[in-house]
């Protein structure tokens, strides 16, 4: 009986970690996996390979949950998403097998460092997102026509139908390969990279970019998960707990997001994410057996670096937003 | 005939996928607890998340059907997780079907490539 309660408690504790991950992931737009893997490895002692497995398969659930709402409202562009999935699915296959070889070579500390680095870099477009509304129009190019990148959606905030036309499809596809690769390698949705591909390369509006990325994440993660399954990276007990937790967390996160947009509280979440990023890097370095740093110092360094980093980002954003406002008035 | 709207169909499929999967997972968890283990493993072994004693490599997808007939908790959970994996596959299939109906040859080809990669990853790799 006591054992039964222990098992139930450990299940619930992972569900809570998943909830937390899903919540922060959806409030910041980074997706659950980016938070889940650090939480499981740093605080629950889950081996990183099983953490990536649980994370990747849970990512499908969150993607499906939120994409369901966005496809219904016709904001996500399924056509563009499917076209770009050619590169992400192949990238995911390559990424999953790369993880396998890194695992076999006993170099898993590299995954920690890479994970932290990717997390920190993902913060850049995530923080910047609050700046831009609609992209500057760029005249359609050859790829716009070949790959039918025109579309429209209704924006409730602007109260009008927004017409858009994507460009530079080939660049987009190129970035997407790496998005898929990172997804398979680190067990995350890599939404930040997908957003970059559609925003920077293809010049699509942010609303279309984020929702389409959300839709795509499920397809990419399904590819990686099925390979992970055969490699034995999915521990059913952890994966089922995280799937449930992440789904609940991102559901509540999305509900709250409506009220949280551009509010200062988001900076708290950015700081947490930055902390997790640095902590992963330090844990990786420490696991590499080149340098050994105690857990306490790892955490202290991470807190310190996060506060500096986020303060800089905060003031930089304040200034550039002020500059943008002055420009509009002048 | 009512107009077929692939956006709505996709939205419904995604939702059904998640709900079904969660239902399988919760049933599986309940069975694990009630039957105190599954597939020859004890509950302690299954719930030990710091080691990899019980992972997906021992849960062959081909055994899921019989596992479910035996009311085996781990196979119910497996079924839930595979339902998740197959949800996006269904979505791509719907998109492919839609492009065929539209006569959009280029996108028929592209979605076929995506579907092939997915099925290749699931069944062959």
Characteristic terms for this protein:
heterodimer, A: 330 residues, mainly alpha, two-stranded antiparallel ribbon, 12 helices, B: 125 residues, two-stranded antiparallel sheet, 5 helices
Report what the structure shows.
The complex is a heterodimer of chains A (330) and B (125). By secondary structure, chain A is mainly alpha-helical. Chain A has one domain. Chain A has helices spanning 2-28, 33-44, 48-72, 78-104, 108-128, 142-146, 169-186, 191-201, 206-231, 236-260, 266-287, 295-329; strands at 150-155, 160-165. Chain A has a two-stranded antiparallel ribbon with strand order 1-2. In chain A, a hairpin with a 4-residue loop joins β1 (150-155) and β2 (160-165). Chain A starts with a helix and ends with a helix. With 125 residues, chain B is mainly alpha-helical. Chain B has one domain (6-123). Chain B contains five helices and two strands; from the N terminus they run αββαααα. In chain B, a hairpin with a 2-residue loop joins β1 and β2. In chain B, α1 packs antiparallel against α4 (73-102) and α4 runs antiparallel to α5. At the A-B interface, α1, α3, α4, α9 and α10 of A face α1, α2, α4 and α5 of B.
């Amino acid at each position: 009986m006591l054992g039964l309660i222990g098992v139930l408690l450990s299940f619930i504790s992972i569900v809570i970690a998943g909830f937390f991950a899903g919540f922060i992931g959806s409030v910041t737009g980074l997706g659950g996996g980016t938070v889940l893997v650090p939480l499981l490895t740093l605080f629950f002692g889950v081996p990183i390979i099983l953490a990536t497995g649980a994370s990747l398969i849970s990512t499908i659930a969150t993607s499906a949950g939120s994409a369901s709402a966005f496809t219904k409202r016709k904001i996500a562009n399924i056509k563009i998403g499917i076209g770009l999935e050619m590169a992400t699915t192949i990238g995911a296959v390559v990424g999953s097998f790369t993880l396998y070889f890194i695992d076999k070579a006993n170099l898993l500390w590299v995954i920690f460092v890479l994970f932290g680095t990717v997390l920190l870099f993902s913060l850049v477009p995530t923080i910047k997102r609050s700046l831009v509304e609609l992209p500057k129009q760029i005249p359609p190019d050859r790829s716009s026509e070949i790959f039918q990148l025109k579309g429209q959606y209704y924006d409730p905030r602007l109260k009008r139908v927004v017409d858009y036309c994507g460009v530079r499809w080939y660049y987009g596809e190129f970035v997407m390969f790496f998005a898929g690769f990172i997804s398979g390698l680190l067990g995350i949705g890599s939404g930040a990279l997908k957003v970059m591909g559609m925003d920077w390369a293809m010049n699509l509006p942010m609303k279309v970019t984020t929702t389409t990325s959300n839709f795509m994440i499920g397809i990419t993660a399904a590819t990686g998960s099925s390979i992970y399954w055969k490699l034995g990276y999915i521990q059913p007990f952890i994966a089922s707990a995280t799937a449930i937790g992440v789904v609940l967390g991102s559901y509540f996160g999305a509900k709250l997001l409506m009220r949280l947009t551009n509010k200062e509280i988001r900076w708290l979440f950015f700081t947490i994410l930055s902390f997790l990023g640095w902590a992963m890097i330090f844990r990786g370095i420490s696991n590499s057996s080149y340098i050994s740093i105690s857990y306490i110092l790892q955490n202290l360094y991470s807190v310190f670096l996060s506060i500096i980093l986020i303060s800089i980002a905060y003031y930089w954003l304040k200034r550039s937003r002020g500059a943008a406002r002055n420009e509009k008035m002048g | 005939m009512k107009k077929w709207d692939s956006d709505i169909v996709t939205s419904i499929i995604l939702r059904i996928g998640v709900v079904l999967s969660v239902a399988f997972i919760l049933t599986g968890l309940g069975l694990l607890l009630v039957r105190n283990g599954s597939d020859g493993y004890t509950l302690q072994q299954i719930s030990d998340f710091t080691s990899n004693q019980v992972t997906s490599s021992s849960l062959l997808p081909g055994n899921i059907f019989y596992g479910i007939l035996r009311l085996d908790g781990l196979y119910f959970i497996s079924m839930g997780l595979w339902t998740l994996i197959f949800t996006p596959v269904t979505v791509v299939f719907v998109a492919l079907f839609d492009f065929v109906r539209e006569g959009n040859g280029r996108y028929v080809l592209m979605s076929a490539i995506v579907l092939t990669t997915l099925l290749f990853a699931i069944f062959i790799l």
